[in-house]
What does this fold into?
Amino acid sequence: MPQWDRHKKRIVNIEFVAVEELKLLPYPERSTLVFITSGSIKGMLNQRPITISAPGILCLTEDDQMQVMEKNYVSAQSFSFHAEFLNTIRLTETEAHFPAAPRIQTGLSLFERGCTHHGVPRISEKAYPLLFEWFFIMGTEVQAQSDDLWVCRIKKYLIQIMGLLEELNQSREHSPVEAVLDYIHTNYARKISLKDLTACAHLNRMTLNKLFQERCGKTAIGYLQSHRLKVASELLTHTDMSLSDIAQATGFEYDTYLIKQFNAKKGMSPTMYRRSSRQFAVIQ
It folds into this structure.
């Protein structure tokens, strides 16, 4: 059921199920992330057979047709959200509709259906501990509502979860560049050196950067910085996190370095970017 925000006296259309029994999926009027932490399931998703073994993720829309036919020692949890939860702003009753209001876009491809998206994204071994931690924190925040920014924190972790899953599923190739991309997407919040990336790829600096230029149009470190800025931009737009917290969450370490990179790459400060992305709007 929707959550009652006791701090801001409003309905928040999300739900976290700590013990997901997989019987009622998909949930009506919701998109749902099901995180399978142990065991396995077999079933049909939109008349297509699926098998998911832990650790696994199932991404469902309200229009999907899901049937679980076999469960083997399954433990799972789920987070579901109404489409309006992706809206960053909430206009007051006296304000007119503002059609350009920002909306979370990260990870929406996970809920598309086609030859490359079928509801069961890939999870790497390195990604599992992060996903487990982020799901745990989201579930804790839904229950605890620790302060008036609890919804912001849930949006932060939702952006990070869906962003990581989306990046991991851009390509299923097994190559040195893909290994480094997986490493970046799961470790960008930490301190990363070029030596770390060359060790991950088992290549020297020149060869790695040459392959990255061919694949991504920039060097390995250049890609790392652009990915950090991408996540930081989402957090600036869709949460009320401080610059210091965003810097730490995206690997810039200090807000001064985040400001420097924003000015250099986007031609404006993070504060100016945040204001421009929310013009005429009020954050949720």
